[in-house]
Amino acid sequence: MAIPTYATVIVQLTDRIDDLTRTFVFNGYNTLSSVLAGPLASLCVLYIVLTGFGIMRGLIKKPMEEFTKGAIRIGLVYMLAMNWGVFSEYLVTLFIHAASELGADLMQATPFDVPVMTGHGVNGGLQSVLIEVVRVGSWTWAKASFKHWAPVFTAMMIYLSGLAVVGLALFEIIIAKLMLAICLCTAPLFLCFTLFDKTRSFFDRWLGTIVGFSLVLVLVSTVVGLCLHLIHWAIGGHYLNHAATVKAVDWIPVFLVACLCVMAILEVTGIAKSIGGTCSTSNGSAMVGGFLGGAMGASRTSGSLSQKAMTIAKAAVPGSVLGNLSHIRGQAGQQSQTAMSGIRHNLGGKE
């Protein structure tokens, strides 16, 4: 096992977090779905049987269309809650993989590229800036002596400024991935909450939390791209000349840029979480119902259109033509009956 250093710690840590969350979501989802499979299947069967029996006997005043929509919703929820293949292909890919890839692409949209020394994407950019900050700080610290303490203070401010930005960005990204893993592994439980009116609010808040942390991955990665460019702009020159021209007050630009970056990351994190909370308000549990209602409405519309088309066709065709068609159809039926009688008579004569 490779020992992490300051030059590899971010890349190794994020790779380890990705492997851990991937395994945790898979194991947690399968464990919870295996526990809930039996009770949920029994509950769904009892609901469909008892509700259908009550509607047939007139004990429950419920439209058949609403009952059909509820049965289809139960089937969809059961498929998503108990089928890892469907769940991982759509939900896990959307909220984790797609959000991370989108954030990495948006990070590259900055007008100036950040030199990536190791890794790739957001993780590689953070690791590269950390390397620059640590090395410039150490080179500045090396200039200090017992009679000249100013480089120590300058190096400490460079360390603190760079580590504050890199640490906060890394913290927000890792926490978002961990919270997404915890929420997604409990998906079978919260998907089942959509079946009952009293528990749908739990599903709404769960979905809003997932959307919020997914947006954190996207928006924080975007802001990180801008912040890394600013940090590199403030410290890149000192990195190229090995801090040969660093003065006692050269920490001020780095400190100002770091304060700006920290405020930007905190602000965009709050925006992402607030957007996710807004999206969850009475909307998550209605998505499946709205989809099914639209599908059933489309089927009813197509049926009414077909009936209107038949009525228009009958009105457009003269009555004599319809009478001739009916007469021809009646003659064809009589001829077929006569032929069948002849065949039976011949078969009886042969016997």
TrEMBL record:
- Keyword Iron-sulfur assigned to the entry: answer is no
Superkingdom is Bacteria
Give the stretches traversing the membrane. 36-55, 76-98, 149-171, 178-196, 208-231, 251-272
Q: Which cellular component terms (GO) are annotated to the entry?
A: membrane
Q: Which Pfam families match?
A: TrbL
- Coiled coil ranges (UniProt) are none
Compartment(s) where it occurs, according to its Swiss-Prot or TrEMBL record: Membrane
Give the membrane topology, semicolon-separated if more than one: Multi-pass membrane protein
Q: Where does the protein principally reside?
A: membrane
> What keywords are annotated for this sequence in UniProt?
Membrane, Transmembrane, Transmembrane helix
Q: Where is this region: Disordered?
A: 332-351
Query: What biological processes does GO assign it?
Result: protein secretion by the type IV secretion system
Q: What is this protein called?
A: Protein LvhB6
Q: Which organism is it from?
A: Legionella spiritensis
